[in-house]
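We read letters as residues; the fold follows as tokens. Both lines appear below.
***
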Amino acid sequence: MQCPKCHAPMHTYNRNGVQIEQCSGCRGIFLDYGELEALTRLESQWGGGPAVPPPPAAPQYPAASSPYPSAPPAPAWGAPQHGGHHGGHGGHHGHQRNRGFGHMLFSS
């Protein structure tokens, strides 16, 4: 089978009973008819495990006053940034996304 986008060869994978075609060129994912419904059903089963009881309530303590001044409010979205930035998209070092249901299917 050829990729409908870039015409490279497609490879078929069977993950948890769902057939997924992936292009070896553009790495696009293509599903056969009904496979999206199967993925949706698997996701609801995967994420809908047994309910975990909530943790016990923490004891309430009076709020302590801080000896330090509070930080200034963050600038509005899109407002110019001044000071401690090194340009670009700082502050994202070491950030990892939570891995969800899709990671189980599409991991290499």
Q: What stands out?
A: The radius of gyration is 24 Å. Residues 1-46 form a domain with the Ubiquitin-like (UB roll) fold (CATH 3.10.20.860). The mean pLDDT is 73. Helices lie at 35-47, 101-106.
